[in-house]
Amino acid sequence: MKKFFALLLILVFSFTLLGANAAEKKKKVRKPKTKTKIEFEAKDGFLLVGDLYFSPQRKPPCPLVILLHSFGSKSSDWGNLGETLRLKNYNVLALDLRGHGKSVYTKNLRFKSRMNFEKEDWVKYPIDVVSSIDYIKKNYPQINTDEIYLVGADLGANSAVLAASIMKNKPKKMVLISPYVSFKNLDIALVVPKLTTVPMMVMASRADRYSYSQSDIIYRLIHSQKVLKLYDEGSSGNLLLKRNPSSYDEIAKYISGK
To answer: C-alpha distances in angstroms, 256 versus 146, 160, 226, 253?
Structure first.
């Protein structure tokens, strides 16, 4: 009988140990987050929402790329660009611009779409970009906010240029997709020439004559290192990228330099 109880105790102990080992293995295989939804307040309290992709490499902290979509678009319209850049060891914020996507509520939770915007609303876009950087710097120390890249499409491109002009640490590079001389009171013709330390790539489609002519003007105003990518198909902004899938890789290569 004693032998029986001893054997029983050994079996119970063995199963307990196996269970503990299995639980430990589960803990070990738990993968770190690759993406999260963030919400934060702009300077005026407007609620901004975005998707934040985390680089697989955490140490040393990797740079940040901010994606600023077209007028009438949303953060998800960047397709797989966020994930592509993430796998190249960049952290990526795909932001829903004020009045777009899920960024449509004031601090009093009052719905406010871009359809109801006045001039004073549009000029807050560059400040929103800086607010997003401040938020990430405060809440995600594993992200290197001293090394930032801006990618913007039409409205987002103009916002990127004006944001760069007020950023303490200038962007390492910028990608401007279908930039305009002026878009929703965001005038950049006098600002672009002053960003002499920021390399820029301009992307445009010949199929959209007005957008192409505007992009050509902006390209000529750049006084830093510059690259021009032209396409025969597509419209402007994020629609240009969708019609030309290779453009996503062009952006990733330009930012990474390889």
So the answer is: 16, 18, 15, 5
Q: pLDDT value at position 30?
A: 63
CB distance 226 to 254 below 8 Å? no
Q: How many CA atoms lie within 13 A of 119 on its CB side?
A: 3
3-state helix, strand, coil split of the chain in percent (to 5) is 40, 25, 35
Pairing of strands 173-177, 200-205: parallel
Residue 28: pLDDT band (50, 70, 90) is: low
Q: Tell me the C-alpha distance between 81 and 250, whole Å.
A: 10
**CA angle, residues 94, 79, 163, in degrees to nearest 5:** 30
Tell me which residue has tokens 């629609």: 239
What does the block give as tokens for 93? 């914020």
How far apart, in whole angstroms, are the C-alpha atoms of residue 19 and residue 238? 51
| Gap between the Cα atoms of 74 and 252, Å rounded | 20
Is 16 a residue whose pLDDT tops 80? Answer: no
Domains of the chain: 34-256 (3.40.50.1820)
DSSP 70: -
Distance from C-alpha of 156 to C-alpha of 197, rounded to nearest angstrom? 20
| Length of the chain as a residue count | 258
User: What is the Cα–Cα distance from 228 to 110, expressed in whole angstroms?
Assistant: 42
